[in-house]
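To illustrate the input format used throughout this study, we show a single complete record. The first block contains the structure-token representation of the backbone; no residue identities are included at this stage. The design step must infer an amino acid for every position from geometry alone.
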């Protein structure tokens, strides 16, 4: 006999809430870049910060309907702190259980910090605050959502490998056949092979096949592309009342998702440049923030060139996103020479030498400028002339469209 179990209605069905929509709504929180005075070193990865973001989203961001909010209110027409905490913690537990987030210590989840009142104070129950990380699944979801939004605005829906005007032998037989050569995939064109043998010896049984009779199908050659995404994270990216770094990170996530899912033979690496330059794992892109202050373009290009030279790929490119002219270089003794005023001749010369090295290595540098500063434009013009790259003036609104369209256009590059 079947039984039905009834439970008291708690006001909202959390199990039916789409976590994908919740993650998308939290994207700005996950991608914070230090804008409006946020600290650089990962303060937005604490469990308390996540709880606060969920509270704003649920109770002030319109994520819950008025009926759902009314169901949560008590006799005094207020939503109690206990109800809010229970609701938010259950959502966090679902995000962890579904693999979107991970904790540095799961056992501390119930002992983390929680606001004592509405003024943002905290009542610490543990000396060490609990911190979370976005998992690969969480990053993939944010990248997928960003990619869909960007490609939807330019009318693209599907992609393949990087097409070239070369032909190769493979399983996908989309074109004619050719005589077999050593190293070709032995995807035999039986009809053409037999026809070649008959043309050589005439009709007869048995048909004697020779090496020169073998014909194999041709398919379009798909090239591989190695990409380094160079992100300027100097402080100018969040100054002057505009956050330019968060949109750049969002585009980076979309590009990485595109390459990982649609171009599995490609590779993408991430380099940040500021006073110096450093490679950061692509899995850490979401938590990267701005700082220090200056723009060491030369050091970023040098690191990117070394990374690309270690990659076995037909095409190598650097995608550089910046909003300022070079203002620093690393000297031979390791010290950093800085000059934020004008185009310093020494900084410019050293940077152009590195651009020339990239050009000699066959690396194309495509620059996306987020500012129309005259000195930046002059620098980029000279740089693109040396490396035969491309330069675009973009805004935070159309940056993603420019980058993705440029990446896809390279599918027609000739491979020699």
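Output of the design step:
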């Amino acid at each position: 006999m079947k039984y039905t179990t009834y439970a008291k209605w708690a006001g909202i069905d959390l199990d039916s809430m789409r976590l994908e929509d919740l993650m998308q709504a939290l994207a700005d929180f996950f991608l914070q870049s230090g804008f409006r005075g946020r600290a650089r070193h990962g303060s937005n990865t604490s469990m308390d910060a996540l709880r606060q973001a969920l509270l704003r989203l649920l109770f002030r961001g319109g994520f819950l309907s008025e009926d759902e909010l009314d169901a949560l209110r008590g006799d005094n027409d207020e939503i109690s702190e206990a109800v809010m905490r229970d609701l938010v913690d259950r959502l966090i537990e679902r995000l962890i259980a579904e693999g979107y987030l991970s904790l540095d210590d799961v056992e501390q989840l119930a002992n983390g910090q929680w606001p004592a009142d509405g003024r943002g104070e905290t009542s610490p129950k543990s000396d060490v605050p609990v911190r979370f990380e976005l998992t690969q699944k969480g990053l993939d979801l944010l990248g997928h959502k960003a990619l869909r939004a960007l490609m939807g605005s330019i009318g693209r829906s599907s992609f393949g490998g990087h097409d070239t005007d070369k032909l190769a032998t493979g399983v996908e037989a989309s074109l004619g056949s050719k005589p077999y050569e050593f190293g070709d995939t032995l995807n035999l064109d039986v009809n053409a092979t037999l026809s070649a043998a008959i043309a050589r010896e005439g009709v007869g049984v048995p048909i004697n096949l020779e090496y020169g009779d073998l014909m194999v199908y041709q398919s379009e050659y798909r090239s591989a592309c190695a990409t380094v995404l160079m992100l300027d994270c100097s402080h100018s990216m969040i100054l002057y009342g505009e956050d330019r770094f968060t949109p750049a990170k969002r585009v980076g996530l979309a590009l990485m998702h595109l390459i990982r899912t649609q171009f599995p033979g490609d590779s993408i690496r991430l380099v940040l440049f500021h006073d110096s330059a450093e490679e950061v794992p692509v899995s850490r892109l979401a938590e990267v923030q701005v700082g220090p202050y200056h723009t060491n373009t030369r050091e970023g290009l040098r690191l990117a060139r070394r990374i690309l030279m270690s990659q076995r790929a037909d095409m190598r490119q650097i995608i550089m996103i910046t909003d300022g002219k070079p203002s620093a270089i690393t000297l031979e003794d390791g010290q950093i020479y800085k000059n934020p005023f004008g185009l310093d001749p020494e900084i410019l010369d050293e940077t152009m030498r590195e651009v020339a090295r990239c050009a000699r290595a066959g690396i194309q540098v495509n620059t996306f400028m987020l500012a129309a500063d005259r000195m930046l434009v002059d620098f980029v013009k000279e740089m693109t002339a040396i490396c035969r790259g491309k330069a675009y003036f973009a805004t935070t609104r159309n940056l993603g469209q420019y980058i993705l369209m440029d990446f896809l256009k390279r599918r027609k590059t000739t491979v020699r």
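Structural context for interpreting the output: DSSP finds twelve helices and 14 strands in the chain. The longest strand covers residues 225-232.
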